[in-house]
Backbone:
């Protein structure tokens, strides 16, 4: 038989228990609502210093099958080609260049945060001349610069467009965008952005969707987790957090723990309308006061039935002419009466009340705008 170990009974002090209960209450207060509606802090904020940087460059794509720029009209392509050949020891300044296998392109890329020298990133290629297709082309060495003018990466490689362009004398088929492509891992990082988080004493948390309530809930969740008042909402878009003593010199560990906390973001009452497509999106906090609505349909039908008038057989005079015949009908729905839309408590009740009116999305857009004008819509309308 295995020897039995002595059981050690540990007592929890009343002070420690009170602190644990207080932290639990703060955590519950910081995250109201159902647990399913809670979101990780990581998904709704950005941390100071953790950001991407945009890179851009100008280059040449060669090896095209007669679908490149016309050197006669694209002067920048011609001058770039001549300059590149001169740097390689080829004098092409006095020659009459007439090739359509070269295209001038803009190269763009995103430099991820804390990227290291020698790692690779994807690049996007876009033609800026009159090239027809970049399929099969190869991008020559292209420096990519940042907003400060410094070179941070160098791109080169075969361009993949993922598009189809074919045609003949009578018809042409184009699927996708053949003048835009991509090179996977096509750029090598040559310069790093010097930024260290090891000695940070404060961390600024920026909300992706600024809101006072959400900022306060984030600060309460952080304070409840750490057990100290280290976080404070500065405004509707940022929370300032002090690095506690047990995390000094290791701000990455603090951010790792903080970003996994869950809060319930507060959503403003907003109705988003796209009149072009007829799409309507409502937030869960949208409310409508009791209103009466009448919506009438007016339909006008215009029918053109031209008739042909011609002379009698064997007539000596007269000619055949087309006589217009237009018929106009107006239908107005007289059965539509005032409908009362009761004050809504939930989004589902609001949707049920609007659906009960039996109207389509186009008319619903006009009705919502009219309700807003009457002051009965307790929400903001945003038209895309």
Residues:
């Amino acid at each position: 038989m295995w020897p039995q170990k002595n059981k050690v009974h540990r007592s929890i002090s009343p002070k420690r228990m009170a602190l644990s209960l207080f932290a639990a209450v703060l955590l519950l207060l910081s995250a109201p609502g159902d647990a399913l509606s809670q979101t990780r802090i990581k998904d709704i904020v950005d941390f100071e210093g953790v950001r991407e940087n945009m890179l851009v460059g100008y280059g040449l794509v060669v090896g095209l099958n007669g679908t490149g720029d016309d050197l006669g009209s694209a002067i920048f392509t011609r001058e770039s080609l001549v300059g590149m050949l001169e740097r390689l020891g080829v004098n092409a300044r006095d020659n009459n260049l007439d090739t359509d296998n070269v295209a001038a392109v803009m190269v763009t890329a995103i430099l991820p945060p804390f990227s290291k020298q020698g790692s690779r990133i994807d690049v996007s290629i876009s033609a800026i001349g009159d090239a027809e297709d970049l399929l099969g082309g190869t991008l020559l060495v292209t420096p990519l610069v940042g907003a400060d003018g410094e070179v941070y990466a160098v791109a080169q490689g075969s361009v993949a467009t993922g598009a189809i362009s074919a045609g003949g004398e009578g018809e042409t088929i184009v699927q996708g965008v053949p003048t835009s492509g991509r090179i996977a891992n096509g750029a090598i990082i040559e310069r790093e952005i010097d930024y260290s988080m090891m000695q940070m004493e404060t961390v600024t948390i920026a909300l992706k969707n600024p809101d006072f309530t959400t900022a306060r809930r984030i600060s309460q969740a952080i304070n409840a987790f750490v057990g100290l008042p280290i976080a404070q909402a500065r405004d509707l878009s940022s929370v300032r957090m002090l690095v506690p003593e047990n995390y000094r010199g290791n701000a990455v560990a603090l951010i790792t723990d903080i970003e996994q906390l869950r809060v319930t973001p507060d959503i403003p009452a907003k109705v988003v309308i796209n009149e072009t497509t007829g799409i309507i999106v409502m937030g869960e906090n949208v409310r409508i006061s009791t209103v009466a609505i009448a919506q009438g349909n007016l339909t006008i039908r215009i029918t053109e039935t031209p008739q042909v008038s011609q002379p009698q057989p064997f007539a000596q005079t007269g000619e055949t002419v087309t006589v217009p015949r237009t018929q106009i009908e107006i239908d107005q729905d007289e059965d539509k009466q005032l409908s009362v839309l009761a004050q809504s408590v939930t989004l589902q009740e609001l949707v049920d009340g609007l659906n009960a009116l039996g109207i389509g999305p186009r008319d619903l857009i006009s009705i919502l705008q009219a309700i807003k004008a009457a002051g009965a819509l307790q929400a903001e309308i945003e038209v895309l």
Summary: Residues 1-33 have pLDDT under 50 and may be disordered. The two ends are 76 Å apart (CA to CA).
